[in-house]
Design goal:
- By secondary structure, this protein is of the alpha/beta class.
- It has 2 domains: 128 residues, Alpha-Beta Complex (Aspartate Aminotransferase, domain 1), CATH 3.90.1150.10; 215 residues, Type I PLP-dependent aspartate aminotransferase-like (Major domain) (Aspartate Aminotransferase, domain 2, 3-Layer(aba) Sandwich).
- It contains 14 helices and 13 strands.
- The chain has a 7-stranded mixed sheet with strand order 2-8-7-6-5-3-4, with helices on both faces.
- A hairpin with a 5-residue loop joins β9 and β10.
- The protein is globular.
- 46% of the residues are buried.
- The model has no long low-confidence stretch (mean pLDDT 95).
- The structure holds pyridoxal-5'-phosphate.
- The site of pyridoxal-5'-phosphate has 13 residues, from α5.
- The site of pyridoxal-5'-phosphate (PLP) has 13 residues, from α5.
C-alpha cells in the first residue's frame, strides 16, 4: 500500500471568484451515456442534441485523414499554412487575415482573452450562444445582456447598450439555440454605426457557425465587411455543414491588427494535423456541402410540419435545429430519453419550456416525431 498522503487538491475558495461562479457548459448527452443509464442498445438511440451533421464526416475528409495518419509523430503546422491558403482563396482575403481555432469555440475564447479583462464588458443578446457568457465570465469581465426581440438579437438595443467599458460585442447569425437570423442589411447598418461611433475600441465578433445552412438568397459575403471594418471578427466552423465536429476546427477572418492580437493568445498547436487536412478536403467538397444543405432543408420541413400537426409553437429556424415549445420540457425530455431519443433541453439558456431539436436524417427525424407524439399523448 502506498504511504503517500492524499491531499485535497483544490480548496473551494482558491482562484478568482469570477472563475468559481462559472456554471460549466452542458453539452448534449452522448449516446453511450444514455445507453448505460437506461440500459438501451446504443444502435437504437437517436441523437438530435448537438447540431451535428447527420451525414457524418465527408468521405473526402476521411481519405485525407488516412493519408496524414503516418505523419502524426510530428507536431501540426502551427500556422496552418495549407488550410489558410485554401481559405484565403475561398474568401479573397490574405492569409494573415485568418486565425485558425480548435473549433470556432476556440476563436470566441481567443477574442475574449485578447479583449476582455476585469473592468471591461461584453455585450450579447439574451438567448444567444451560451459560450459568450462563459467566455466573458472567465475573463472576469462584466456582462451586458440585452433583451431579445422575438427570441433573436435586437441590434438597436445592443447598440444602445454599448458602454464606456465595452470592448466586445458578440452576435450569432444564425443564433443558437433559437435559430433566428439577421439579414445582411441589418448587420451592415449595425457594423457601420458601431464603427462610426466607437472606432476600433469596440470589436464586433460575428459568429457564423451555421452560415452554410442559409438559403442562397439570404447568404452574404461577410469577408467584404471585414475589409470595411477593422473592428470586425467573423468566425466560421467546419463542425456543422462540413461534418467535422469531432475534429475541432474553425477559423476567423479579421484585419491583420486584430488577427495578430488573437494569435498572441492562441496556443501554437491549437489545430491538430488531422483537423487541418480534413478541413482542406471538406472545403473543396462542394457536393457534400450541397447535400448537407439540401438534407437540412428537407428535414426542417419535416420537423416543422410535425410541430404544426401537433399544434406546437416553434421559432422559425435558419440553422440545422429547431427550437420548439413543449411546456414542461424537463418531463418531456426525460420521457424522450426513455424512448432512446436525445434532444437538447435549454433551461440553462433561460428557456425552460422549450427543447432544441437538431435536424437529422429523415429516419431519425421520424423516430423523434413518433416518440414526441407518444410522449405528448401520455404513452
Ligand atoms: C453559434 C455557435 N457558435 C459557435 C459554436 C462552436 O462550434 P465549434 O467549436 O464546433 O466550431 C457553436 C456550436 O454549437 C454555435 O452554436
Amino acid at each position: 500500500m502506498s504511504t503517500t498522503e492524499v491531499r485535497q487538491a483544490v480548496q473551494p475558495d482558491v482562484g478568482p471568484a469570477y472563475i468559481r461562479a462559472i456554471a460549466p457548459y452542458q453539452a448534449g448527452k452522448p449516446i453511450e451515456e444514455l445507453a448505460r443509464e437506461f440500459g438501451l442498445d446504443p444502435a437504437t438511440i437517436v441523437k438530435l442534441a448537438s447540431n451535428e451533421n447527420p451525414l457524418g464526416m465527408p468521405v473526402s475528409a476521411q481519405a485525407a485523414i488516412g493519408k496524414a495518419v503516418a505523419g502524426l509523430g510530428r507536431y501540426p503546422d502551427p500556422n496552418g499554412f495549407d488550410l489558410k491558403a485554401a481559405l484565403s482563396s475561398r474568401y479573397g482575403v490574405p492569409a494573415d487575415w485568418i486565425t485558425l481555432g480548435n473549433g470556432s469555440n476556440d476563436l470566441l475564447e481567443l477574442a475574449s482573452l485578447a479583449l476582455l479583462s476585469p473592468g471591461a464588458s461584453s455585450v450579447y443578446s439574451r438567448y444567444a450562444f451560451m459560450v459568450y457568457r462563459l467566455a466573458t465570465q472567465a475573463r472576469g469581465a462584466r456582462h451586458i445582456v440585452v433583451p431579445a426581440a422575438d427570441y433573436g438579437h435586437d441590434l438597436d438595443a445592443m447598440f444602445n447598450a454599448i458602454d464606456a467599458d465595452t470592448r466586445l460585442v458578440f452576435i450569432a447569425n444564425p443564433n443558437n439555440p433559437t435559430g433566428t437570423f439577421l439579414a445582411a442589411d441589418q448587420i451592415a447598418r449595425f457594423l457601420e454605426r458601431v464603427h462610426v461611433q466607437y472606432g476600433d475600441r469596440v470589436v464586433v465578433m460575428l459568429d457564423e457557425a451555421y452560415n452554410e445552412y442559409l438559403d442562397p438568397e439570404l447568404r452574404f459575403d461577410s469577408a467584404r465587411w471585414v475589409e470595411q471594418y477593422p473592428n470586425l471578427i467573423v468566425s466560421r466552423t467546419f463542425s456543422k455543414a462540413y461534418g467535422l465536429a469531432g475534429l475541432r476546427v474553425g477559423y476567423a477572418l479579421a484585419q491583420p491588427a486584430l488577427t495578430d492580437l488573437l494569435n498572441r493568445v492562441r496556443q501554437p498547436f491549437n489545430v491538430n494535423t488531422l483537423a487541418q487536412v480534413a478541413a482542406i478536403a471538406a472545403l473543396a467538397d462542394q457536393p457534400f456541402l450541397e447535400q448537407s444543405y439540401q438534407l437540412n432543408r428537407a428535414g426542417k420541413q419535416q420537423l416543422v410540419q410535425a410541430f404544426n400537426d401537433l399544434g406546437l409553437r416553434y421559432v422559425p429556424s435558419y440553422a440545422n435545429f429547431v427550437l420548439v415549445h413543449v411546456g414542461d420540457a424537463a418531463r418531456i425530455n426525460l420521457a424522450l430519453l426513455r424512448k432512446g431519443v436525445i434532444v437538447r433541453p435549454v433551461a440553462g439558456d433561460g428557456l425552460p419550456e422549450w427543447l432544441r431539436v437538431s435536424i437529422g436524417l429523415e429516419s431519425e427525424n421520424q423516430r423523434f416525431i413518433q416518440a414526441l407524439q407518444q410522449v405528448l399523448a401520455g404513452e
